[in-house]
Amino acid sequence: AHSGSALVPWAVARNPAGTAHKFGMRLGCNSTNSRDLGLCLRGKDFKEIIMAQAQFMDWFMDPFVPFPPTVEVLTTTTGFVQPQGITFLPEHPYTMIKQGRFQRVPMLTGVNKDEGLLFHAETILMNEKALGELNTEFNKWIPISLMYEDILPHVGQRDHVSQQIKSFYFGNKMIGADTRENLTNMYSDRFFVHGVQTAAFNFAKYASVYPFLVTYTGANSNLKLFGIGEVKGVAHSDDLQYFFEMPNMAINPGTRCEIFSKKVIKIWASFAYYGKPTDTWISSMEWLPVQPVETVGGVPTHYYELNVEPRPIESPFTNRMHFWNHLIDTELHEELIFIPYRNNKTAFGGMPHPPFSPYRQF
């Protein structure tokens, strides 16, 4: 699992009915009944739908995943039940992972050092309007960007959480080039690191989990594709070039990047064959799975750092993960619970979201 898990905030829809209704209105489909809404959307040209989704933003690029998977339930006179037949997501992933209801096989999982550099730190720093709004109205826009607006229905609650986040990452500093690393860390932690580590710890109770951290900075980066050539870091998806042939990120033969790529692929191949990463190219540097004592905070978490010289390291995220663990435990706990029909979106013909049932087969 590279740079994600089922527990990152963009992996599961929290207000699917509200989102579907809002999207329908943009296309002139104003019905609050899911079947009517589905029929109306089916009558639209696919280009209209694509264009509407491309403009489906509340602030800047967000929500950048407006239609993630949805927990599938049906409403009855006595409550909520699972629909008959096969469902893609019958319960919230956190519940299923916590209870060990998944394929209990060994797992490699990890993140890149600067995940949030591309999503969204550097793109915000390049956009004068977005940067200005974040500095002057942080409490207004950051709940949308960090995806907790739907979790906290009251403005006061959102403001309280927003100020905790701002204080932790920026203190009294302005957001700008001088706080690029702070902004990157904020998005890295929220969008990637916390969800990956939380999933890893819960998986580790049932199967071996091998966490990794990519710190190798190659000659190519997705940052360049966005016109961000001067900034260095290991951004989201930069690791894919070492596993796959990518037209815009070609690796030249005989370079350090090619050597690194071949060595990393050998590790992944050894994991696929043996169920553990054995070919670490520095034999003395054994890659150990997550230990039980690490999952409860008894000792620091260890990652296997993937660089020219790989090695096991203590997690660089410890304090940041403590912050998010506390914030989710005390303020954002509903994020890990499925609550049907958030914000009183109880219409849709007794169905929690379109498309559903036959409409899921558009």
Automatic annotation (TrEMBL):
<comment type="similarity">
    <text>Belongs to the type-B carboxylesterase/lipase family.</text>
</comment>
<feature type="domain" description="Carboxylesterase type B">
    <location>
        <begin position="2"/>
        <end position="324"/>
    </location>
</feature>
<keyword id="KW-0719">Serine esterase</keyword>
<keyword id="KW-0378">Hydrolase</keyword>
<protein>
    <recommendedName>
        <fullName>Carboxylesterase type B domain-containing protein</fullName>
    </recommendedName>
</protein>
<dbReference type="GO" id="GO:0052689">
    <property type="term" value="F:carboxylic ester hydrolase activity"/>
</dbReference>
<keyword id="KW-0325">Glycoprotein</keyword>
<dbReference type="Pfam" id="PF00135">
    <property type="entry name" value="COesterase"/>
</dbReference>
<dbReference type="InterPro" id="IPR002018">
    <property type="entry name" value="CarbesteraseB"/>
</dbReference>
